[in-house]
Amino acid sequence: MPTTIRLEPEIEARLAALAKRTGRTKAFYLRQLIESGLDDLEDYYEAVEISERIRRGEERTYSSAEVRRELGLDD
Hints:
- This protein has one domain (9-70).
- It has 3 helices and no strands.
- By secondary structure, the protein is mainly alpha-helical.
- The model has no long low-confidence stretch (mean pLDDT 95).
- Helix content is 68%, strand content 0%.
């Protein structure tokens, strides 16, 4: 899907320099940044949702002692 974005000149220059230095396209790096950034954003918002469920008492939490006991790691 073709998409247009507006970059600050300094960012565009850095991106162009990286592409030139590595022989890859600017589009390659933009795709890479979007994919990794999207993963980070999804993880962040999932953590926020889980935190809210914990705060409301809708999500079970476990202590480290409970986890160790469940995994048979207690000495």
